[in-house]
Write a structure and sequence with these properties.
7-stranded parallel beta sheet; Rossmann fold; 60s Ribosomal Protein L30, Chain: A; 6-stranded mixed beta sheet; 2 domains; alpha/beta; globular
Length: 392
């Protein structure tokens, strides 16, 4: 890691699970680690374990939902050295039907998952900007990229965290500071074990059946390990890349990438991909995104009957879905290739197509190739759009 000498990493929610694994990984990378959480007994144990193996660590109690507590954490951490890495990992889970979601439940999940990251980022960011080097990594969730049954409050909170990530990333672009997020699915932690126990209690299923149901709901075939998430955090906190990612959302759902240089992007709302994947991002958390040809298919994988303009609208919207899951924006697209089965029909629809295009892309016009084909994979599809984006 190329952070300033004597740098400090602050990890919230570091008493157990992902936070503890991340604190250990950052300490192994050579940083002095502040192990922060509300439970002092847990963080004292984690810090002592790191010190016992020759690492530099200190436990600091903090309630991330308290502005005063976060400010105290920033002052105390700064006494150890320049804070170059902030990992906003503190979080809470909750699963309940909307009708049984109390205002207290809603406020609690938003406070821990979103407001806490806002308070910590606001506290630590100014010094990073002044030194022109810093890494903020937010531990979000795949629930922050799509909805889920009985997850209204939790999903909304994680969506807020992803929005915070992308907005602050835009604010600090070019400053030497980056803000990114990791979005794991179900992770092998006590929090997931508690979720499984709730399913067992409500449904009478065995633990294995409950875990399988939970994984299936997220499109996972296995639990992600806390160490996998920690490794992703460290990769986003490092400075190994000439152009480190900024505003990226790195999905960790237990699926194996094609190689160590690629991350696969498959937004769950698009359903199963037609080919191998919907998108491929070079270097996990990297820079170039290749978006496979998207038709007007819905989440079921079918292309509903619709006119040419409506199909174009849906196909371009699906391209945008893949792009945003990878942390990109319309202005990041450098090239479109548009395949149509009827060129005359395309040209006759230029005006309404232009209106659709501007709604998705505003005034950004990348290089574009138009190709007429005799047919597409889905016989009901009349248009397919693929794209290449350079994220920055």
């Amino acid at each position: 890691m190329s952070s300033p000498a004597g740098s400090v990493a602050v990890v919230t929610g570091a008493g157990r699970g992902i936070g503890a694994a991340t604190a250990r990984a950052l300490a192994d990378a050579g940083l002095t680690v502040v192990v922060a959480a509300r439970n002092r007994d847990q963080i004292e144990r984690r810090a002592a374990e790191l010190v016992a193996v020759g690492r530099k660590a200190k436990a600091m109690a903090c309630d991330v939902t308290s502005e005063a507590s976060v400010q105290a954490l920033s002052r105390e951490a700064a006494e150890l050295g320049p804070v170059a890495v902030l990992v906003n990992n503190a979080g809470a889970a909750g699963s309940m039907p909307l009708a049984r979601t109390s205002l207290e439940d809603w406020n609690r999940l938003l406070a821990v998952n979103a407001t806490g990251a806002f308070l910590c980022t606001r506290a630590f960011l100014p010094d990073m900007l002044e030194r022109r080097w810093g890494r903020v990594v937010n531990v979000a969730s795949t629930a922050g990229l799509s909805g889920g049954k009985y997850l209204a409050a939790y999903s909304a909170a994680k969506h807020a965290l992803v929005g915070l990530t992308r907005s602050v990333a835009a604010e600090v672009a070019g400053s030497g500071v980056t803000v990114n997020a990791v979005c794991p699915g179900f992770v092998d932690t006590e929090m997931t074990a508690e979720t499984v126990e709730r399913i067992v209690a409500k449904t009478g299923r065995t633990r294995d059946e409950a875990l399988a149901a939970a994984l299936a709901s997220a499109g996972q075939t296995r639990l992600v390990s806390a160490e996998e998430v920690a490794a992703a955090v460290v990769s986003l906190a490092a400075d190994a890349l000439t152009h480190p990612p900024n505003g990226a959302t790195l999905v960790l759902d237990g699926r194996e990438p094609m190689s160590g240089r690629f991350a696969i992007i498959n937004p769950p709302e698009l359903g199963a991909p037609r080919g191998w994947n919907n998108g491929m991002l070079t270097q996990a958390g990297g820079r170039t995104l290749f978006i496979a040809g998207q038709t007007a298919r819905d989440g079921s994988g079918r292309v509903p009957a619709a006119d040419f303009v409506s199909q174009f609208d849906r196909a371009l919207g699906n391209v945008m879905t893949v792009l945003r899951q990878a942390g990109g924006e319309p202005r990041d697209i450098g090239r479109f290739t548009i395949y149509v089965t009827d060129m005359a029909r395309y040209r006759a629809s230029l005006k309404p197509l232009g209106e659709v295009y501007r709604r998705h892309m505003e005034t950004h016009f990348p290089a574009m190739a138009l190709v007429e084909v005799t047919s597409l994979v889905d016989p009901r599809a009349v248009v397919e759009i693929e794209a290449t984006a350079v994220l920055g």
